[in-house]
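REQUEST FORM: STRUCTURE PREDICTION
Request ID: SP-0412
Submitted by: Lab K.M.
Chain count: 1
Length (residues): 286
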Amino acid sequence: MPATTAGPRPPRTRPRIPAPAAAGLLGACHPLPAAAVTLFTAALAAAVGRALPGAAVTVAAVAAGQLSVGWCNDRADLRRDLATGRTDKPLVAATVSPRAVAAAAIGALLLCVTLSLAGGLLAGAVHLTGVAAAWAYNLRLKATAASWLPYALAFGLLPAYVTLGLPGAPWPPPWLTAAAALLGAGAHFANVLPDIEDDLATGVAGLPQRLGVRRSAALAGLLVLGSTAALVLGPPGPVSPYGWALLVVTATPALLAGGRLGGRFPFRATLAVAAADVALLLAELR
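STATUS: Completed
RESULT:
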């Protein structure tokens, strides 16, 4: 039989995610808070003196965890978002499929587990406890009076995840843990404010929904202000003029977050306070 020659094989190409789906995935991960938490982790790792390789793994683990939490949140909220017409959500706008978001959430979670444990068993367990708390919020606790607890726990454990990677695995000082937990709880109240009415209409009755818009807004401002106060007053020694000045400056957006009720302003003001807190933290830990 005469030999036959086949034509050249087409080059193998990796499947590509269509641009609209990629944009939908990006929007569904809650990019602003995810980036803010990741940058805070990077700043804290630099402030406490983490070596570059360990710091890179730590920051990557936090980024993966934040992505998993964001995608889990949007997938878990799909039914309620459809009921309230949240067309700003990629899943409701159908720019990405529920299956793709669920797969991305699970994939990011598996990556988070691997990266977290790469930094040590104790540090990894601390970080994964915080991530588990965030998933528990998405899947169950957001509709209960304990809705604030996962935020406080996850944020409060974040400094420990960073410092436990240092030689000797030290725990962070209590004032730093308290400041992070207060900031997390404040972020929860501020983030929920614009959606309280829609949440109540779809059966979500977390603590902010039970307290109402006005009291939740005031509490959000007090919590984030308390976070800054912990960073200023917590470290030993006299407070520097820089610390007092920063406390006064951060008090303004914190109080505005508690007094202005519309839109996303309270949450953005909380992020502004968080940025100021990071600047203060870098100064305190030098």
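NOTES: The longest helix spans residues 52-76.
Reviewed by: T.R.
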